[in-house]
Amino acid sequence: MQIIFDSRYPTHPDDVKHYDTEQLRQHFLVDNLMQPDALVLCYTHYERVLIGSAVPVAAAVQLETVDALKADFFLQRRELGVINVGAAGSVVVDGTKYPLKNKEGLYVGMGAKDVSFHSDDGSKPAKFYFNSAPAHQSFPTKHLTMDTCTVLQMGSQETSNERAIHQLMIRDVVQTCQLQMGLTVLKPGSVWNTMPAHQHDRRMEAYFYFDLADEQGVCHFMGQPQQTRHIWMANEQAVVSPAWSIHSGCGTSNYAFIWGMAGENLDYHDMDKFPPSDLR
After folding, report:
1. pTM
2. How many structural domains are present in the chain?
3. pLDDT in tens, 155-183
4. Which residues bind Zn(2+) (predicted)?
5. Which of 3, 108, 122, 172 is deepest in the core (most CB within 10 A)?
6. In terms of DSSP bridges, do strands 248-251 and 89-93 run parallel, antiparallel, or are they unpaired?
7. Residue 198 counted as an annotated binding residue
């Protein structure tokens, strides 16, 4: 099994004003996820959130620690949120097997020592996307499904943003230390994933785009409201969003995305909104 690791350091908004396309992609885009039989890890210094993936094809993929964590095992001081965006698979946590269908999730609390990812059929592998954040308390592992999560129906066809927001890991559904995750599915004909754009100064966020058809793309908007920038993204890529940045995207077709957040406030609706008329 291969482990692919990199890290991203924080950036100041005044510096980002001067970034060209390649610098924006270098600092904020995670474009190496979903590699077969590999544990891919991107350690960000935004709330110490870690973005990763595991695609078990020939064998299970083990969630192993890396030197940068300075931990005896991966979840020694961390919690974990996993969402399967591929075919059927399972996550085994300290000997207990949790089957995960497409778009189902699993919360794993701090202290779990042995975590591994499995596909039911290696020729049609599961694709596990995950976020991990520092934790101060251990909470129970919980299987999260599309049927048991909170669903918000948002937007409209007239504004091209009709979508269903599935809140898989928020405090009304599962107890966590600071990690929140969920997925949003856009309806056919809708392309805007979040409008009005917003910031939340009390936490960072990461977006993972998936279910995007071949030859289609998503333009992700970031930056301060008066200094917006954009990054063109492809299927199964993620982007890091600092607390000072808006985060919104528009695709050339409908798609889905996973949002993951961590910080000091667990109120999902704690956000500072900026209507299109305020953006520059």
Report:
1. 0.96
2. 1
3. 899 989 999 999 999 988 999 999 999 99
4. 198, 200, 205, 247
5. 108
6. unpaired
7. yes
